[in-house]
Amino acid sequence: MTNWLAIRMMFDKIPFLVGSGIFLKNFVEIRDNIKKTTMETYFDAGTLCVYVTQKTEIILNALQLEESIREIIRSPQVQAMIEEKIDEVFDTPEGFLLGIMVNKKKVKASIIPALENIGSDIVPLISQLIRNSEHLSEDNLREQIDSMITTKNAGNAAKTSDRGGEGHGSNGVGMGYHLGEHIRRLAWRSAGTGGGF
Questions:
Q1: CB neighbours of residue 145 within 10 Å
Q2: H or E segment at 109?
Q3: Per-residue CA distances from 15 to 7, 10, 12, 113, 170 (Å)
Q4: pLDDT of 23-41, one tens digit each?
Q5: Sign of the C-alpha dihedral, residues 10, 11, 16, 18?
Q6: Of 45, 73, 81, 85, which is most buried by a Cβ count within 10 Å?
Q7: CA distances from 27 to 3, 17, 31, 106, 194 (A)
Q8: Confidence (pLDDT) at 179
Q9: Is 172 helix (H, G, I), strand (E, B) or coil?
């Protein structure tokens, strides 16, 4: 009986009973404190640093940058671009003089392997650039997660407000009512009553 009354007092406003309905009354504050605790517990800088480092390496390995660059250079589209640029060079007065000494076909044949070698050389630079990206910094990720949660909370509050709070006001209190109902049922079961309100 005591457990039942305590649980009921948390979620329902009972006339003349001081302290009852505290969950709904302070839902926004409770929600913000839960968000703060979640951010500090699960999204601290150390945890995010480890996560980002591991994920970045997994992504870089999955991308197989060296092989991807090689495939891009060998693709018909890039081959056509290279040939077009070589033709443009040979069409200039300087290129005409170069053509007297160097065979254009041989230039085209040798430029592809050279570009592939350059591609292999720049892979570590690209990888390092991705690892050091400001978008993957712990502070930036924390801000994004915090903003996402805040936006989600605001969206839920707006939906509840559009529905008129379903009899429990706006500012997320209607949402708090539904969350409170769920928590109350769980608490009721753990109290060992097996029933409902």
A1: 16
A2: helix 104-131
A3: 16, 13, 9, 84, 21
A4: 777 778 888 888 888 888 8
A5: positive
A6: 73
A7: 21, 19, 6, 75, 26
A8: 57
A9: coil
Query: Side chain identity at 165, as an amino acid letter?
Result: G
Alpha-carbon gap, residue 146 to 52, rounded angstroms:
17
Q: Which two tokens stand for residue 20?
A: 């009852």
Query: What is the residue type of 169?
Result: G
b/e map 166-195, b = 16+ CB within 10 Å: eebbeebbbbbbebbeeebeebbeeeeeee
CB 169 within 8 A of CB 72: no
Low-confidence ranges of the chain (pLDDT < 70): 1-5, 7, 156-197
Please answer whether residues 168 and 174 qualify as being in contact, where contact means their C-beta atoms are separated by less than 8 angstroms.
Answer: yes
